[in-house]
Structure formats: structure tokens, C-alpha cells
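The data are quoted verbatim for completeness:
=====
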Amino acid sequence: MPITPTQFIWMDGAMVPWDQANVHVLTHGLHYGYGVFEGVRAYQTPKGNAIFRLRDHTQRLLDSCKILMIDVPFTLDQLMEAQLEVVRVNDVPEGCYIRPLVYLGYGEMGLNPLPVPVRVAVACWPWGAYLGDHSKGARMKISSWQRHDPNAMPTQAKGTGMYLNSGLAKMEAIRAGYDEAIMLGPDGRISEASAENLFVVKNGVIRTPASSAAGALAGITQDSVIEIARDLGYEVRFETLVRTDLYLADEVFLTGTAAELAPVASVDDRVVGDGTPGPITTALQSIYLQAVKGALPAYEKWLTYCS
């Protein structure tokens, strides 16, 4: 989706005008993909803009850095404040998407990342639903590209270069006429979509692959939806899934910060259920969207207000 520029980007502790937030062409992370990022959303609420699960996203950013042995020159609280400040100064009234990025900067070249300076940036811009208006559900395709083996790439790190894998799967799906890709793990079991966690509903039970077994990133939106589902009385299980579980599901849906909660209409041209969002998907989507916008006191714990 196109980026709509805002006014400022936070870079290494200072606000920089959008058009001046530049890096050198020999930036290490540009050549070797060495960096980590998060996708975070701020929503308009009755109390003003609020960031959804800010602490959890920021902790995952730092956890990713630890996995990749990147020494971040800012604390968790400083990085949280940077995101709040970016939202405040850019004043996007309808809410926005936030992109914190930690990357290896300019000064060294070669595969050894240890002597390279660490840089940090935070940007935000207005961004709609990542999968667009698929109110009737997205068309999915099992990708020919396999998700990373956890012993080849650390799948619990949200590493920048690792998303070449996701981009190949996404491009393949789009060029074949689908909306999104589903990726299998090294053992042929379901892992996740190119940038979302995946849920299957069968006989009233909600199932999702465990990140430890499937190589999927443990999702913060995934965790939120599981809590909502259990609060509504649904049974949620972490289980190994194969592609036929998708073909025979009553409902399938995706979760992610960018995608939020998106229904799936078909997988590999097999219609899911009757091809329209099912009752469990619809109920969870409704509660989730109310929660992120501050309409449900029970989930206000997930919101950090910017003012």
C-alpha cells in the first residue's frame, strides 16, 4: 500500500523532517538485511489517539534485537516514549501505523556485524487495512516458498532480511490472482501467512499453529484474539495443522497488526465454509475492532494513550 507522508520521523533521539530522514547508500543493513522492526498501530479513541499493546510490541522489538545480538542504545521506556511522541507530533487524527526500526548503520562493510553502529528510527503514517476491503474474505494460496527452518533463521526474531522469504510468497500469490499466501514449515505443516498468523475453526473449536512447532512468529494480535475468544467462551487450541485442515474448515481467518482480523473465503480455490465470514470470525472481528478503539473497558489495558 502507498505511504502517505507525515511531518516527522524520530531518528536516534531527534525528530527529523520526513524528507530529511535519510541513510547512506552503504548502510550495512541495506546490504545484508541486518535489522529488526515492529508493526504497531495507534487508533482514534474517545480519549484521543492510543497505541495498541505498545509495551508488548516494544518488548518484542528488544527481544528480536537480543536474538540477533544487536545492542540497542535505548531502553524499553525510551523506545515507548519515542513512539508516543511520533504519534503526538504528527497528529494523525484517524490513527496511524507505526514502524519502529533498529538497523546496522554506516561505517563498516562485510559480514561481521559486531563493529557496525546501531541506528534506531520510528515513523508513522495513516494506513488502512493491509489486505484491503475483503469484507467477504480473502482468497489464499499455499505458497511454493517454505517458511524458514528455525535452525536456519531465528523465526522468533522479526528480522528485516528474513522478510525476503515473505515477499517472495506474497508476490507469487498476487501474480497468480490471489490476495495472500499461506506458508508451510520445513515439515510440510501449516506455519502462517506471509505476514499474519492463521486460525482454523472446525465444529466450534478454534485452532492455530504453535509458533514453537511451525516456525511462525508469535503474534501480539494473535494473542489478543485468543484472549477475546476465550472470554467469549470459545475453546482455543494450539495444534499442528496440515493443508487439508484449511480445505475442510468451517471458518479460516488471519490476524496481524497490519491486517487486524481478516476472514478467509477460500484456500487453493477450495471455498471455506459457505465462502462468507462465519459467525465466530465475525464475532471476534467485531470485539477486536471495538477493543482497539477504546470502546470496551475490559480491554482498555491494551491501550496506551498518547496525550
Summary: The mean pLDDT is 96. Residues 88 and 306 are 6 Å apart (CA to CA). The chain has two domains: 8-125, 138-292. Helices lie at 28-32, 54-67, 76-90, 163-175, 211-214, 220-231, 243-247, 279-292.
